[in-house]
Amino acid sequence: MRLENKVAVVTGGAQGIGAAIAKRFHAEGAAVALLDMSEEKLKTAAGAIDGTGRKAVGFVCNVADKEQVARVFGEIEKKFGRIDILVNNAGITRDAMFHKMEEEQWDAVMDVNLKGMFNCCKAAVPGMRERKYGKIVNLASVSAFGNIGQTNYGASKGGVIGFTKCLAKEIARNNCTVNCIAPSYVNTEMLQAVPDNVMEKFLAAIPMNRLGEPEELAAVAAFLSSDDSSFITGECIVVSGGSYM
Known about the structure:
alpha/beta, 7 strands, 46% helix, 16% strand
């Protein structure tokens, strides 16, 4: 119960990696606020974690909208009293080869993946600094190191890594840590739609010859959100099955 009596916010928490993180946090004792765009998926995810609705609650929120973020974070603090942990997991892809990429595809990815993280940290960090305690975990990606057809996504996730390292230096004196996780191919709904021939290429690039599981990412997030990682900040942990050794 490493997270007992902690309050955690997980963006993109209605499915995939976000839902797995929220479930793991709850199992370790935290009250969890799940943020996502789909009210129906949020109800399903939160209900699967805690049917009472006391320690797992869904909030509809577009993280790219700073007014929505400010309002929802205020509601979370009103319900739970504070925010101890923030996991910036919400993210989208709009893949295209660069010569075919439209400005709208670029802007959409930057708005959610980068500005969304900025908005959520702006809402959570002041309270963390005041209380002199906070754990922030940002989801990056190995696409930051280069991937065909993902100049927008890779740039946004490279930005996540840079943001993490800079913010970590700023708030370390307030007993707050900021780290990020860069996964490779994880077994989520998004990846399950990939054609078999493409999946074979993905697996061939992973020495462990399998996809990562959302629960494995959740375990890393739980460690970085607990006091077991109290002297770790500004780090980017690659979770790739050995593809980026």
